[in-house]
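Entry for copper (II) ion complex. Fields follow.
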Amino acid sequence: MRLRPFALAATLAAFAIPAAAQTAPDWSKAETVTLSMSNYAFAPSTLTLKTNQPYKLVFTSTVMKDHDFNAPELFAAGAIAPEDAGKVSKGTVEVDDGGTVTVRFVPTKPGTYNFDCDHFMHAMMGMKGTAVVQ
Ligand SMILES: [Cu+2]
């Protein structure tokens, strides 16, 4: 089931910021990480991120096909900038064909988190990867 992001934006924004995150991340120090989405792969397929480093995650579809970045465990292990929370629905970022979506995110919990594109059959065809938060 796919829900419209806007109806849930307010609710999700409340969950996007863990209560433990007392100090707001300095988004001006965000490092840009670009993730290209094609048929059917992410490039790079392994993201290496540092705990408590703010990132500007740039998801870009290089093809005329919709894809998404589905990473609920990763997004749950950090904080999304409140202004970008509406772009992440249930841990998934939808990217229209040829489009680009930017989400500012700071990982706060080290770990290895899998991500994939949950469009029909895309992960099976290779559209998946791993985010390592050090
Ligand atoms: Cu896809």
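NOTE: Residues 40, 67, 117, 119, 122, 127 surround copper (II) ion (CB under 6 Å).
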